[in-house]
Amino acid sequence: MTAPMHQILGWEDYPEPRVVTVRGTLVVEVSIPRAIRHLFGSGSGKTNNRRLSTGTTDPALARRKMWPLAHSIYKQFDQMQADAANTHDHQTDNFALDTISALASSFNYNRGVPPELSNKTPYAELKKLKDTLDSYTVMMIDQGPPPEEAIAASTIGAHAIRERSNPAQAKAQMLDKLANSGPFTMKQNALLAKNATSVVQTYWQDLLTTAAREQGVSEPSFDDNGSIDVTEHEGTYLPQGVIETPTVIERKRRVKTNDTIRISDIRDEYFVFLEQKYEKANTRRKWSRAVDQFSELMGDLALKEIKPVMAYNFAQKQCDSNTNVSNASIKDYHTGVSLMLKYCVRKGYIEVNTFQGIGMKEYGKQGQPWLPFTLEDLHNIFAYDWPEQERLLLAIVATTGMRLTEAGMLSWERFNDTEVEGVRYFSLIDTQDEQVAIKNEGSARHVPLHPDLILPAKGKGRLFDYTVDENGLCSSSAGHIINPILEKVAPHRRKSAHSFRRTLKVMLRDAGVSREINNIYTGHGEGDVAGKSYGGASIRTRYDAISKINVSWLQQSL
């Protein structure tokens, strides 16, 4: 007997990865969950693990590659389950289509021309066919043989007679009984009994719901078992030729009415949408965490139950559960839920995004901006005996206002000292061969360098070797080295490597640089996505602006 489909496993159900050595190479290994191992086949060479090579023998590098490779394995698990579900869906849909078509034919419905079972077919025609066949089914249930016997009689060696000592005689007796039972023929009784099963009824429900959505008419509502009683069996018995043991299949609704769709129903498809829309993993995680946090605190609500007041209730519950929660965190979670609701509006699940336009400024602790370094701080910072790499990084950050990851990811291929006479600059704009890790479009800019900034001899590739994370950023690895030292030489809880940006903005302002040029230079403008200049702020104009700053505190050596 074929087992019914199990619940689909998600990434939270998969085992954690591990790095192991296989034939001298480090590989990432994930155990196949027991519930889906049968999908991966069997045999002497079968393993209960999936592996992907890291391509290295360096344990540190292998660990950095562990999660990206694990995610690739997780996608394999997803695909195997999807393929199995598609096979099962194909089987159940064929059974439903065959039953409905044969039943309509047996009653010569519409003079032998029943409507096509498609969501393009007028909804009223589909509904009329279903209602007609269901009415016959109710008559059969009321006046004819039990549905179990009707199906069993149509299946050679079916379960209802296979246990008897003389199956052939039992079958003959049952056929004789059915031939003289109720208003319909034995064939019609069997087909009507199949029509009453959950396999056929849920197929009808999905077809009518999708047809209503496609054609813009009101969606039908059904109780849990459909519009008519179904048999007492969890599944439907299908013949497998002349065999003693039939196959059991089951079918659950795949299309829910909009009134009943819950957050959990759209969670997986929405997370797939996030995977496709957002390139950075930390952005995807932020928006997906917001949805899960909302479900945890507010419940797995039907989408149509989410009212505007729940935005405030959600924020308050976050404050109640964590008295130190920041306003920024609450705003992020609010935005994450709002993005999910916006997606649901586009999909037609709801009419309005009830979180849109609601402010959250009254909730959580307000964050305090980073303070700029003082002139004394700058002297202390650059008087410190930094390693060569960190000194260069800080010199670039302090004199350009680049974010830590913007500077830490610089490559010599982005350096230009020939196009504008007497001006050196780095480009933070994507090219055909390389994408730049920047925060937003305003950060895509050309950054002229201060004339007193000393660079090493031009080379190839990256200027720095800080570890790059899965988001293509190196701010964490660089910050872990730099910030602890900054805390010692310029101690203040509101000062860190990010303070260099604010420091440069203050110095540009004090040097008489206009606010517009100040913002464009530091990446707070609209960026240079259209070319090498914007609003009159050419590379030469920016170079003149940055050259006005006194950087006597900058202590560098070749």
CATH class placement of the largest domain: Mainly Alpha
- CATH topology name of the largest domain, in short, is hpI Integrase, Chain A
Termini Cα gap: 78 Å
Q: How much is the average pLDDT?
A: 81
Structure description:
The structure is a single chain. The protein has 558 residues and is mostly helical. It has four domains: 11-87, no CATH class; 107-249, no CATH class; 263-347; 375-547, hpI Integrase, Chain A, CATH 1.10.443.10. It is 46% helix and 6% strand. It has 18 helices and eight strands. The strands form three sheets. It has a three-stranded antiparallel sheet with strand order 1-2-3. A three-stranded antiparallel sheet has the order 6-7-8. It has a two-stranded antiparallel ribbon with strand order 4-5. α1 runs antiparallel to α6, α2 runs antiparallel to α7 (198-215) and α9 (281-298) packs across α11. It starts with 17 loop residues before the first strand and ends in an 11-residue tail after the last helix.
